[in-house]
Fold these 3 entries.
Entry 1:
Amino acid sequence: MPTSILPNLLGFSMGGMAIMLAFAGSKVFTYITEDGKKHSYFIKIVASFYHFIFVQTAAILMGILCQAYPSIVLSFIGFWSLTYALLVAPATAAQLFNTARIANAAASILDIDTPNKPPRSD
């Protein structure tokens, strides 16, 4: 089961990481990097994605190992690694949602800072 579920989830993770790294070319990037602070929001979100990708990769490898060498102990460890990999997904999705909220707030600040731009009609 991990070898059928987790590769798709790993693709989601890589896509989310690509979205985060795409912010590097935008003005919003200056807000999430917090002027280069060591523990900025950007570093936290990248670390979160790295953890998510690492856990999924470990669970996939454990699933392959369980298929090659079936045993109760490996199956138990494999089940919990799959469960943990699936439970980390909502936390990472929440990080993406928070990033979207920050980008949205930064966009409204950038609209205020941009002269000669017509006001938005929210």
Note: The two ends are 47 Å apart (CA to CA).
Entry 2:
Amino acid sequence: MIQKPADTAQPIEKVMAERWSGRAYDPTVMVTLEEITALCEAARWSPSCFGDEPWRYLVCDKNTDESAWKKVLSALVPGNQEWAKNAPVLIVTASVPNFSQNDKPNRWSGYDTGAASISLCLQATAMGLMSHQMGDLMTKCYVSLSIFLLISTFGLLLLSDTRLH
């Protein structure tokens, strides 16, 4: 496994120190459906205002839906496409801005989505996967993926297996 632990001023939990946003991915190694499901489950158990869970993840797995994966990849700025093209999983991170029970604005939706995303990333680290969060999705992502304007898109998570094979 690739390891690049953080040099912290005080000791922190191992999974937090080992989480890092690498850009070197092995394009031949896929992330399994079971692993993707576990990551989504970690996000699902994150805290949120009134338990509303406003986060939405559009999981694009190159192994199972290369067309969707290519659409997301093409929505990145060209410099990031160069290295992101090797990540087997691209996840669009979005948030519903209104509460589901009353349709009133949820000013905490971005905060809650961030909490869910870091939970997903820490779970990835614990499983020997690497995650990298980005915020450079271009506007064409909304069109090419038919993302409704009712949803705020925050960014992208890239996932890859870092275990030695």
Note: Residues 109-126 form the longest helix (18 residues).
Entry 3:
Amino acid sequence: MHPTRHCPPGPSTATRPDPSGTLPADPAVAAPPGSRGIDEILADARARLRRLDPEGAHLAHRRGALLVDIRPAAQRAAHGTVPGALAVERNVLEWRFDPRCAARLPQVVDYDLRVVVLCQEGYTSSLAAAALQEIGLHRATDIVGGFAAWSIAGLPTLGPTVLKPPASSLAPVAVRPTPL
């Protein structure tokens, strides 16, 4: 479960979990003036987006939108992937999609590019799509419910992939016969 589902407004709520979702917030710690909590940041990001349900995202992708999976490789391996989605991890997303940046992807030729961002549950993708809009990609959006909702909807997926440890970590084990 995503930690933002449990963050009530207000800095003084003692039962609010920390970002890991396991500990209550310290009520003695006051938020800095002008700071915003993640729930407010997420709501502001989503207010700027025309979010798509999984079926709408699938249709947009089939009509030429670039579907971008921002999940880490381990998460894609553990849960599966969407065929045709471009894997661009979140930590490099803005550099790959800024038309002004030398590190941009070849597909990023102008600001009218239709980008649909996918994460596991639809939280991080909202923040990422809003960041792409700030760069100028005004048609960027995300998928409500992320990969989990896509998969539940029965849309095409591949995997999950079983990650195998490197051969060097599979040292042979000597076994002695046990006397009877």
Note: The CA atoms of residues 74 and 162 lie 10 Å apart.
